[in-house]
Amino acid sequence: MVKAWYMDHDKTDPRAEHQRNPPEFISIEELHRKTGVELFKLDLKTYESEGVLEKIKKERGYTYEDEITISKECLPDYDEKLKSFFTEHLHADEEIRLVTEGSGYFDIRDGLDEWIRIKVTPGDLIIIPRGSYHRFTLDNNNYLRARRLYEDEPGWLTHNRPADEMACRKKYVEQQKRGFDSEN
User: Fold this and answer.
1) Where does Fe(2+) bind (predicted)?
2) pLDDT digit string (tens) for 45-73?
């Protein structure tokens, strides 16, 4: 089960949980309403035979995928890549990941510019909306393998903050003001 919480303001090791004291958890429904993040829990033993992922890919127009393994042993330029992943940024396309092994954190800003941390583990499929400021880091296990889904061949760019003048950012902010449960 995915867990999400508001982060403390401690700037030390990004791989720590960084929960506030006392912890301030947020439900998955509230997370979606405030940020647009969508989460699915897939059974890694059956999702392919049941066609669950194929259905999501078809509904959302994802036509390309690859796999990434994030570990010191497997990822070239590991330290630089982790710094890049943890730099606050946005994309003009959705960021979609299905965690197949390991664990990590996606952080996303709410409408008040506060960080919400989302713990992902095997079977979690997370969709980060286009135009949202977010970042990623491993947890203390220092390992994650994920399938990455794309609308087309990977070509989307990372735009570090500030990127507030981008059309996708403006659209995201307007939707965030209305709440993501409301119609577009």
Assistant:
1) 89, 91, 95, 134
2) 999 999 999 999 999 999 999 999 999 99
| Torsion of Cα atoms, 170 then 83 then 27 then 141, to 10° | 160
CATH number at residue 60: 2.60.120.10
Q: Which domain holds residue 154?
A: 38-175
9 is in an annotated binding site: no
3-class secondary-structure state, position 155? coil
Residue 133 · residue 89 · CB < 8 Å: yes
Residue 9 in any domain: the answer is no
* 95 marked as binding residue: yes
- Going by pLDDT thresholds of 50, 70 and 90, the confidence category of residue 183 is low
Q: Is 48 annotated in some ligand binding site?
A: no
Joined tokens for residue 82: 């982790």
* Tally of domains within the chain: 1
Residue 2 lies in a domain: no
